[in-house]
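Why do we care about 3D structure at all? Because function follows from shape, and shape follows, mostly, from sequence. That is the central idea of this module. The next example makes it concrete: a single protein chain, its amino acid sequence, and then its structure expressed as tokens.
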Amino acid sequence: MNSRTREKIDSLLKLIFKGAGFLTITLLAGIFFLLFSNSILFFLDVSPLDFFTGSQWDPDTHFSIIPLLVSTFWVAIGSMLLAVPLGVLTAAYLSEMAPRSLQTVLKPIIEMLAAIPSVAIGFLGIVLVGPGLAQLFGIQNGLNALNGSVLLAVMALPTIVSISEDAINAVPKSHREASFALGANKWETLFKVTIPAAFPGLIAAVMLGLGRALGETMTVLMATGNSAAIPRGFLDSVRTITATIAIEMGEVPYQTTHYFALFAIAGLLFLITMVINLTGEFFANRLRKFDA
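And the structure:
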């Protein structure tokens, strides 16, 4: 292959990659325009003050996002309280403590969690986790925020473990050697040197795991009870923003206030997840610079 042919192939590949990049940006801009143009039509009929300060989501009379927003954050934050300690400690063990033979077994198993369909995890929440929680806490129904938190924690684990392990592995070996030279043991080095040094990457893992939890639909639709009321605790049934869109969009009359309301809550969720993902990407970039 002569140099002219290689140059033509290189130019063609650059054009293809550039086109793919512009196509992705165009699709994202189209989604953004669709969500927010319909959201504006909703706010022509409903006061933004009522939307952001009300306490009821009732498509016949009231359109307040507060019950859905609080429910979404109950489930998402609950999942992070479970997944972050477990994920970071698992990553630390795999990176610093586990023998090589055990790493080759555990890492694929953890990564396979991401391949389990969300509907299968939701089904397990209905038939296994929910009844277990009901029996444990002495309540009639285990379909609540805690059930959704447990399931979302399982779904977020692969992301948190993978990125946390990369962050811990990126800490220079000299940091560990200096700690050992000062008389610290392996555990002291891990918790006082390695993990603090990997903190930007761990923040990225948490942010991206949170974004994963906020955007999940089928699992929370099946396992949280779908009560559109402001929850008082993890044992209350909740309805998240994603579950509301999935339940109501298929039956809502076209171009009604209810129809545009679903675009409004989707637009707000879009903004929230975008901010969270951008924050995670910011810390991930800091990790890459640290690694370099």
